[in-house]
Amino acid sequence: MPPLVGQMAPEFTLPSTSGSDVALQQCRGKSAVLIAFFPLAFTSVCTEEMCAFSEDSGKFEQAGVRVLPISVDSIPTLREFKAKEHLTVDLLSDFRREVCRAYGTLLEDKFFSRRAYFLVDRDGILRWSHLEAELGHRRDDDELLAQIATL
After folding, report:
1. For 58-97, what is each residue's pLDDT tens digit?
2. Given the residues 27, 46, 51, 100, the one annotated as active site
3. Closest listed residue to residue 115, CA positions, set 24, 56, 58, 52
C-alpha cells in the first residue's frame, strides 16, 4: 500500500551511481524531491524517461526539486545504463526491494517496481503520488513540473 498524501514520506538510504549513498533525509529543509520508481534499466520506456530527466534536469533544479530515480537493478547495471545513455541524473538501486515495498510499488510476481512518482516537499511530507496502471506508460516531464509548481 503506497503512503498517503499528507503523511511523512518513508525514509530510505540507497546506493547511487555517484558512488555515494543517497538518503531522503539529506534533502530535508533543502529541496523538494521527486522519487521516480522505474521498472528496469535498458527497457524502452525507462530509457526514454531517464533521458528526459537528464535533458530536463535544469528545469527540475530551477523548480527546487531533486529527482531520485529508483529501480531494483544493481549498481553495476545502473552504471552501465547511465554510461550507455549519457545520463546526467544519478540512479539509485533498491536491489533488496525494501523501498519499493515501503512505497507500495513492488510487483511481487515480477519482482520489480511498477512505474510510480512521489513528490515530497522540503519538510518530508508526501504532497502528490501517481502509480502507473500500465508498465508502458509514464508521466511527461511537463506534467511532473506542473505538479511541482503546485507545491
Report:
1. 999 999 999 999 999 999 999 999 999 999 999 999 999 9
2. 46
3. 52
Q: If DSSP codes are grouped into helix, strand and coil, which group holds residue 9?
A: coil
Burial of 63: CB neighbours in 10 Å, binned 0-12, 13-18, 19+: middle
Answer yes or no: are the C-beta atoms of 26 and 13 closer than 8 Å.
Answer: no
46 is catalytic: yes
| Grid cell listed for 12 | 530510505
Classify each residue of 80-115 as buried b or exposed e, where b means 16 or more C-beta atoms within 10 Å of its C-beta. Answer: ebbeebebebbbbbbeeeebbebbbbbeeeeebbbb
The domain 13-148: what is its CATH number?
3.40.30.10
